[in-house]
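Recall that a protein's primary structure is simply its ordered list of amino acids. Everything else, from secondary elements to tertiary packing, is in principle encoded there. The following example makes that idea concrete.
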Amino acid sequence: MGLLKQSSLALSINAAILSTTVGMALPTLAEEAQAGKLEVIEVTARKRVENVQEVPVAVSALQGDNLDAYSSAAMDIRFMNARVPSLSVESSFGRTFPRFYMRGLGNSDFDLNASQPVSLVVDNVVQENPILKGFPVFDVERIEVLRGPQGTLFGRNTPAGLVKFDSVKPSQDFEGFASLSYGSKNTTDFRTAMGGGLTDNLSARISYLRQDRDDYIDNEAPDIFGEDFQRKNVLGGYTDQALRVQFLYEGDDFNALFNYHARDLDGKPVTFYANAFKPGTNDLVDGFKRDVVTHDSADRATQQVETQGASLTLDFDLGDYTFTSITGWESADIYSRADVDGGYGAPFAPIQGPGVITISSETADAIPDHDQITQEFRLTSNFSGDFNYQAGVFYFSEDLTIESFSYEALFGAGGPQTGYVVQKQDTTAWAVFGSFDYNISDLTQVTLGLRYSDDDKDYSSQRFQAPLNGCCGQPNEAYGEVNPSDSHVSWDLSVTHKLNEDVNVYARVADSFRAPSIQGRSLFAWDDGISVADSETILSFETGVKSDVMDGAGRINANVFYFTMNDQQLTSVGGDSNTARLLNADETVGYGFEVDSEFMVTDNLAVTANVSYNNTELNDANISVPVCALCTVTDSVNDGRAIIDGNSLPHAPEWIGVLTARYTMEVGDGEMYLYTDWSYRSEINFFLYESEEFTGKSLLEGGVSAGYMWDEGDNSYEVSVFGRNITDEQQAIGAVDFSNNTAIINEEAFWGAEFKVSFY
């Protein structure tokens, strides 16, 4: 799917790909592939252009055919879930607010100021707010996934790792493409990009995406008290548009790249299904249907998202040094309203069916005002000797306003607003950093990284309207302010040794942290609803081998790791008391291994096979959390709270496995290809406590595509058919636990066709 021709014979989801610095052209992959060998791969995992086989970091990438296949079917960024070793992605908001988990470390907090231990960097600018992280993936050259702490070069909130997106950059060569796919649920996906030289020094590229799906989920809640809220096709649809405009100036000793990007989403939130689990099991109830809900407020469900941002990257070539300035601005605006309980009947109807509930929850969250400013200055040495370094300073500022609303449990056209809370959070952070490389010999290199970070937050919350007839505090009650701050010295030390021309081994130890977090659940709280989690710190040990095999036709990279995280920030979500609180666990221990492999089996057959194992365990004898209203808890319970000491982390599968294969053959004047990919993840816990219902089953999803590509004149053409989740696996991938056993379900099978034209 899309851009297939550019990398049809050299595929990988596991090794990072050729990196693009400003003005640097990508070499063609066909030259190596024609000889039955894999391309030489370079990365910018350490903000330098380096051979991935010589970098002492566990790096994987999504690129080329694999990236295009995964992101087909108009998928949002959650397509990355279990497509890379040790990486999981989920959301309770739908196409926005993705939550990333790496090596088991993540954050299930659903507040709009939630921080995560996995950072997202797009075109060299950090995307801190969770709404920014959901920007659509289109016209992207590569996605690099850096596992393990990345706190020296990339910042304060990277103790678990980093996901790095790099868009296709402008070039002097005129090129572009347009693709259109159509598939299940009347889904369309249109993508186009065009670029080229405007003058001898200035080039530009414009990229555009539009994804549409009709509402297809029916509301079949029965009439109650004369109110009719049965509707056809009320949920599940969206129109998602995104734009990126770039200008690149290339001089003799100065380059400048300007990037403007924007998104406009008009759709529906994630769909919640009430009482979807059979009591005492994690099976879905008999007769469960993805396209049917029983909501008492489906008509009012909506999700409106607007984001925009701009960045300016300046590179000055000073001979022995390169000076880089990266200035970024991001802004987000969202309003999302949903029937969170997923059912109907409250507060009058007894529990008598799979969709009936006793406590109704129709809520909305909004960001009416948001601005993020970042600035990085970096000096990089270009010495020809054994010693090189980079050093710099970083500044981050974010002003954020959040509104939360609740609505009365009335049916039909009812649902008047009953609660209103405003939160304000201002964050200021700065850092100085350095990374120093020294070649001990021709075979051995050592790297030391250091970063001092300082983080300050100013937070306030006020409830202007109290829900549920004032049961939770009083209107116009100010809940005061909190002002957490912290500083930390992150560091890493690594050694790389070349055993021979084809095999490198490395060892790395790294320390990093995540700054304090704040949660203001003041809407339904009996007290002020504010909780603060102190900084978490991690110490990680990793060693691995990176090898080229089969005379350059194969690549196998493997590593093992062990980490200890102190004061891990966790979110106690929901429970029958309907509370959500931040807390710190004394210690979390994790260990495992990851294997990335890629082979050109023949000149026509490319295969990748990747696997990861992660074991995580909470060690805190005094930690406990509220439990569900109706589920079957398997932990020890004391006074309605589960003892979670010894539990694994939520959304942390022990096993992830990925297999892809692509076969090409010449047919007539063109090339035909057959492609398949399969992804497996083992079972997961949805929450910190363990229960029968909220243990997510293991999930196996497969995709296929077949297409034909040919050249005609100055253009290349491609037609294809494809399928995602072709076995139509149907199971819960998330849940809500406060009033009933509500489920979030994975995407069903999708079938579609695509036409693409590329011009040069």
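DSSP finds two helices and 44 strands in the chain. The helical segments are 30-33, 64-70.
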